[in-house]
Amino acid sequence: MPVISDPVQFNENELYVDLRAALGLPLYLKCEGFNFAGSIKLKAATEMVDAAERDGLLRPGSVLVESSSGNLGVALSVLAASRGYRFLCVTDARCNQPTIRLMEALGSQVHVIQEPDVRGGFLGARMAYVAALCASDDRYVWLNQYTNQGNWKAHYRTTAPAIARRFPDLDVLFVGAGTTGTLMGCARWFWQWRRRVRIVAVDSVGSVSFGQAPGRRLIPGLGTSVPPALLDESYVDELIRVDETDAVLACRRLAARGFLFGGSTGTVVSGAGQWLADHGRAGLVSVAIAPDLGERYLDTVYREGWPADVTESEPAMARSA
C-alpha cells in the first residue's frame, strides 16, 4: 500500500467490475469512487485547481466558489482543505444531506438554493448566484466546471488512456452526461486512437443536454437543466436516455449482489443494458464508467418508497427543474 501525505495522491484508477456475474451483462464497469472524495470528480477538480494556481488566479486569501450538485463540491472540499483555501459550494435542494454534511465536515461552507430559475431550473439559479457573488467580491474564484477546459482535459489525460491500456480491444464505451467533462475527455481521446471505439452517451430523462424538453429529475449528478457548454455532439455516436426509476432499479440490483454504487452509476448501467440488449454480440468488449459509490444515496436511491414518496409531496415547479 502507498504512503501518502496529500489526499490527491491516492486515486484507484485500475478497478473494474465484470457485470456478467452480477447482472448478466457483458459489461466491465470502471469504478471511479475509490479516492478521498468518493467520485470521479476528484480528477476534474485537481486539474482545474492546478491550472488556476499556475495561472495565478488562486492566491493567498482567495475563496474558491463553485456550483455543484454534490460530487464536485466534495472533491473541491478535499482540495481546499489540503491546500489551505476557503471553499463555498453552491448547491440546491436535490443535493443529498450526507453530501452536504461531508462538505461541512471538511471545512467548506454550503449554500443551498431552494427555488429553481424559471428558465434554467436549479442549475441556472445556482450559476446566477455564483456569478453575482463573484461580481460583488474579487476574492471569490469561480472555476466554473461548466466551461472550464480542465474538466474534460483531466479525463483526456487519465481516464481514457487507463481504459485503453486495460482493454486494447475495446468496442464501445458508455459515459454518463452531466457537465460532459468525462464524456468529452474520453470521446476526444478515443477519436484519436489507433482503432475505432463507439462512444455512447447516457443521459437522464428530463435533461436538456441533448436538446430534449426539461422534466422532473431527482437524482443529482447526470443530466442538466442548462445546455452544457463543453458538449460537442460530433464526438458522440449514440445517445441513450434513462428514466430515473430504471436508474434506481439498476442501483438496487447491483446492491443485491453486494455492489453499492451511486445514482449516476445506476443511470449509466441501465443505459448500457438497454444498448447491449439491442446491439450486443459475441465477443463485443464494452466498458461503462461508474462515477461514484452509493453511501451518499442511502436516504434517497436506497430508501424504500423513494422516489414515489418525494414526487407526491413536491411542488410542481421543483419537479420540473
UniProtKB/TrEMBL annotation:
The record's section on CDD domains has:
CBS_like (cd01561)
Cofactor list: pyridoxal 5'-phosphate
Which Gene3D superfamilies does the record match to this protein? Answer: 3.40.50.1100
Coiled-coil stretches, from where to where? none
**Residue ranges annotated for the Tryptophan synthase beta chain-like PALP domain, each copy included:** 19-274
The record ties this protein, via InterPro entries, to: Cys_Synth/Cystath_Beta-Synth, SbnA, TrpB-like_PALP, TrpB-like_PALP_sf
Q: Does the keyword Transferase apply?
A: yes
Q: Which keywords does UniProt give here?
A: Pyridoxal phosphate, Transferase
Q: Which PANTHER family match?
A: CYSTATHIONINE BETA-SYNTHASE
Its quaternary organisation is:
Homodimer.
**What is the name of this protein?**
2,3-diaminopropionate biosynthesis protein SbnA
